[in-house]
RNA sequence: GCUCGUGUGGUGUAGCUAGGUCCAUCAUAGUGGGUUUUCAUCCCGCCGACCCGGGUUCGAAUCCCGGCACGAGCACCA
């Protein structure tokens, strides 16, 4: 039997044990801020597989922490919108963990009643000792009755945070210390730190931790494949132990490694939140931040982001990628439809002498004549040139004429191109004062200049000739996307 | 420290499960050239890699052992 093993694979690796039409995936961010560039990977990979296998994608808010990473109310609106923008369809289901508490309680009770969970009253410090020395803690042998009693104490306010947690009984001899009797639910002070969801607020004192909540919810939702960061590998192992207790089959799993971007480093939502609150940034869509909203506003397309992440695939390597890779994908997406616009920074006015027409018409896009023409007026034979371009005396105004420069005046020497003199861009008399915003080395710079008149609406991605691609963010205001 | 995971050109990525067709794929970056009245797009060329050391084998990027490096988990965060 012959195998076509040497065929080069393209796109994402095959989803293991997947049945077409019967695949359920999920993307589960903490709504403690809007989505970041890093979240895009989870969304793109999971949604691409969902599409490929006629499956479903669940967007799940893992909002069970009110103290360390408290949820941000606007994120519940913003994340679904950003997700839809990025992946091109609405997630099939949206699940909010904080609204599913009764389910988690049900399985916590089941765990206690069946004796594979217990209420542990050891301090964190003490349990750490037990874990490291592979010693069962004193609470491990609690009777079911005592556990139920203590569970009630956790819920009725007898206990405060730190007094007790519910643990999953695994095996204190487990090789991997992370798996030894791991914590499943704990108490939070929801008087002091209420949950921001309406109706949830201070309703519950006992909250599940990620490993428990996620495990139960994946089961309840019928998730077939979990694809997530490899930092959650131990989470899989913990959850698999829980699944064994319950007699459930754990989903197939795949992992990706850590990603950094050369220019940004990591992208922690919590850190961004602190920096914004400290006034270091203007808000979540400050163009310097690696949030999805900032990227979108800067002119990065959803398709470019998708192509970028699919190309990286789901390897477990920790990688650091340059932004130029993303920019290259973006250029491929937008170039063919980006109208050309002339923007002259450091403009100097130059008056032309010689045979000067009253206007010049230039193609909106050199490779697509159907996009029409743009008209550069030449009232008073006046043009604006970039002063840096005027270091040389003999230049050619792009799509117009050869000139010999002399200070603020210039002689038109030929309409036809006569020699190999450098070609520079320019604007005519029908130009406007405009502002170009450039983000460089973590700084926002504003460059004033003259821009040709155009009637492209806000949001249009265009190409500034000899500068780069940009997006119109306001009248006469362009943000440079990239070269 | 314990546990888990990963190591292919500058950066990513394919190939590794079932060893030969791999003097190793594709992309990006860099570089040279062509088209083009943009420093854009497009096209062509060049550059450049299997972490190290053993072993098995006629043959190893692929299997085994041992190093080394990097990352993550060991939270009453997600």
Description:
- The chain has 483 residues and is of the alpha/beta class.
- The protein folds into 3 domains: 11-99 and 209-337, Rossmann fold; 101-208, Glutamyl-tRNA Synthetase, domain 3, CATH 3.90.800; 340-482, Ribosomal Protein L25, Chain P (Beta Barrel), CATH 2.40.240.
- 27% of the residues lie in helices and 27% in strands.
- It has 11 helices and 26 strands.
- β25 and β26 (477-482) form a beta hairpin.
- The longest helix has 16 residues, at 37-52.
- It is elongated and about 100 Å long.
- Residues 1-5 have low confidence and may be disordered.
- It binds one RNA strand of 78 nucleotides through α4, β6, α7, β11 and α11.
Topology, please?
Layout: E1 24-27, H1 37-52, E2 56-61, H2 75-87, E3 93-96, H3 101-113, E4 117-120, H4 124-132, H5 144-156, E5 165-168, E6 183-187, E7 206-208, H6 210-221, E8 225-229, H7 233-246, E9 252-256, E10 259-261, H8 269-277, H9 292-298, H10 302-312, E11 319-321, H11 323-334, E12 340-341, E13 343-345, E14 347-353, E15 359-363, E16 373-377, E17 382-386, E18 394-397, E19 401-406, E20 409-414, E21 423-424, E22 431-440, E23 443-452, E24 461-464, E25 468-474, E26 477-482
Parallel strand pairs: 1-2, 2-3, 8-9, 10-11, 12-24, 14-20, 18-21, 22-26
Antiparallel strand pairs: 4-5, 5-6, 6-7, 13-23, 14-17, 15-16, 18-19, 19-20, 22-23, 24-25, 25-26
Helix pairs in contact: 1-10, 10-11
The protein binds one RNA strand of 78 nucleotides through helix 4, strand 6, helix 7, strand 11 and helix 11.
């Amino acid at each position: 039997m012959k195998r076509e093993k040497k065929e080069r694979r393209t796109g994402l690796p095959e989803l293991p044990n997947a049945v077409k039409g019967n695949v359920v995936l999920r993307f589960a961010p903490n709504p403690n801020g809007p989505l970041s560039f890093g979240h895009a990977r989870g969304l793109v990979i999971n949604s691409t597989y969902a599409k490929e296998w006629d499956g479903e994608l669940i967007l799940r808010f893992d909002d069970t922490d009110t103290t360390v990473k408290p949820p941000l109310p606007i994120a519940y609106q913003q994340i679904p919108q950003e997700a839809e923008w990025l992946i091109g369809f609405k997630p099939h289901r949206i699940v909010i963990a904080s609204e599913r508490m009764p389910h988690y309680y049900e399985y916590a009770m089941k765990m206690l009643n069946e004796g594979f969970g217990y209420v542990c009253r050891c301090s964190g410090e003490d349990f750490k000792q037990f874990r490291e020395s592979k010693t069962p803690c004193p609470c491990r042998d609690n009777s079911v009755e005592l556990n139920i009693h203590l569970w009630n104490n956790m819920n009725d306010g007898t206990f405060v945070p730190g007094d007790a947690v519910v643990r999953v009984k695994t095996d204190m001899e487990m090789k991997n210390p992370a798996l030894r009797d791991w914590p499943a639910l704990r108490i939070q002070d929801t008087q002091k730190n209420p949950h921001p969801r309406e109706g949830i607020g201070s309703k519950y004192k006992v909250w599940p931790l990620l490993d428990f909540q996620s495990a139960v919810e994946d089961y309840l939702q019928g998730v077939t494949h979990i694809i997530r960061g490899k930092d959650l590998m131990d989470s899989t192992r913990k959850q698999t132990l829980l699944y064994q207790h319950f007699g459930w089959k754990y989903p197939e799993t795949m992992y990706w490694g850590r990603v950094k971007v050369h220019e940004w480093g990591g992208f922690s939502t919590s850190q961004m939140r602190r920096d914004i609150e400290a006034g270091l940034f203007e808000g979540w869509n400050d163009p310097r931040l690696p949030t999805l909203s900032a990227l979108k506003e800067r002119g990065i397309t959803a398709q470019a982001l998708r192509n970028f992440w699919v190309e990286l695939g789901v390897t477990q390597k920790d990688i650091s990628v340059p932004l130029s890779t993303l920019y290259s994908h973006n250029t491929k997406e937008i170039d063919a439809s980006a109208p050309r616009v002339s923007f002259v920074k450091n403009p100097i006015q130059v008056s032309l002498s010689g045979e000067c027409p009253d206007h010049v018409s230039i193609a909106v896009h050199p490779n697509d004549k159907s996009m029409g023409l743009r008209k550069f007026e030449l009232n008073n034979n006046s043009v604006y040139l970039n002063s840096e371009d005027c270091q040389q005396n003999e230049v050619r105004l792009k799509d117009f004429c050869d000139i010999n420069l002399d200070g603020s005046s210039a002689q038109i020497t030929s309409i036809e191109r006569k020699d190999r003199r450098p070609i520079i861009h320019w604007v005519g008399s029908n130009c406007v004062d405009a502002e170009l915003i450039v983000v460089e080395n973590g700084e926002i710079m504003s460059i004033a200049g003259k821009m040709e008149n155009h009637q492209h609406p806000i949001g249009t991605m265009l190409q500034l000739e000899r500068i780069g691609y940009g997006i119109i963010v306001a009248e006469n205001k362009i943000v440079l996307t990239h070269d």
